[in-house]
């Protein structure tokens, strides 16, 4: 690779073998080892500044995935899930229902959009129209018992092993119903 230096006067490039700048004619003095060290430090700082600016604008470059993180993500992906909908009861006014990462605000008799229920413990909270919590459970397991006393009033369980079945938490009837999954596509 051909090395070039930069002229102190005109910032033109000078081949390393000559001592007079071909651009401006000034005598060029080769930097001392101390000068070269300063150049390297300044160059490093400039490179670091550019890198930090690019990361601030575009984020960090891709990195290898931590093995523990990968195992955790794969475990989450292997959880069983089913599709479900909720219909609010007709006698409690508007309800705010938080289920896992889903949040629904449903008027009396209104159906939610379809969502996924996971086999691990789901965060489950129901608030009335006055924002009072009327049901809350940090680890609600639908495969053990779906009875919350608000929407589902009878003992029932979800079978997460049957992927072709979807569920309706029917607050009007107060029970868990199995439904054809194609019905969810119509909602």
How would you summarize this macromolecular structure in one to three sentences?
This protein is α+β, with helices and mostly antiparallel strands and 187 residues long.
Features:
3 helices; alpha+beta
Can you describe what's shown?
With 187 residues, the protein is α+β, with helices and mostly antiparallel strands. The chain has helices spanning 33-58, 67-77, 182-185, and strands spanning 4-6, 13-15, 81-87, 95-99, 102-106, 115-118, 122-127, 133-140, 165-170, 175-180. The strands form three sheets. Strands 6-3-9-10 form a four-stranded mixed beta sheet. Strands 5-4-7-8 form a four-stranded antiparallel beta sheet, with no helix packed on it. Strands 1-2 form a two-stranded antiparallel sheet. A hairpin with a 5-residue loop joins β7 (122-127) and β8 (133-140). The longest helix has 26 residues, at 33-58. 22% of the residues lie in helices and 28% in strands. The mean pLDDT is 80.
List the helices and strands and how they pair.
Blueprint: E1 4-6, E2 13-15, H1 33-58, H2 67-77, E3 81-87, E4 95-99, E5 102-106, E6 115-118, E7 122-127, E8 133-140, E9 165-170, E10 175-180, H3 182-185
Parallel strand pairs: 3-9
Antiparallel strand pairs: 1-2, 3-6, 4-5, 4-7, 7-8, 9-10
């Amino acid at each position: 690779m051909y090395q070039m230096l930069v002229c102190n006067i005109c910032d033109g490039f000078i081949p390393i073998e000559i001592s007079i700048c071909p651009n401006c004619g000034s005598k060029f003095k080769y930097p001392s080892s101390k000068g070269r060290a300063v150049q390297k430090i300044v160059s490093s700082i400039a490179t670091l500044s550019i890198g930090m600016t690019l990361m601030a604008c575009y984020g960090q470059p891709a990195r290898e995935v931590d093995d523990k993180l990968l195992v955790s993500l794969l475990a989450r992906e292997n959880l069983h899930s089913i599709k479900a909908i909720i219909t609010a009861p007709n006698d409690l006014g508007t309800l705010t229902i938080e289920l896992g990462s889903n949040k629904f605000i449903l008027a009396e008799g209104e159906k939610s959009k379809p969502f996924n229920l996971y086999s691990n413990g789901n965060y489950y909270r129901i608030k009335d129209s006055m924002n009072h919590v009327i049901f809350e459970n940090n680890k609600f397991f639908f495969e053990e018992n779906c009875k919350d006393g608000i929407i589902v009033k009878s003992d029932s369980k979800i079978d997460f092993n049957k992927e072709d079945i979807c569920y309706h938490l029917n607050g009007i009837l107060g029970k868990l119903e199995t439904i054809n999954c194609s019905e969810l596509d119509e909602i």
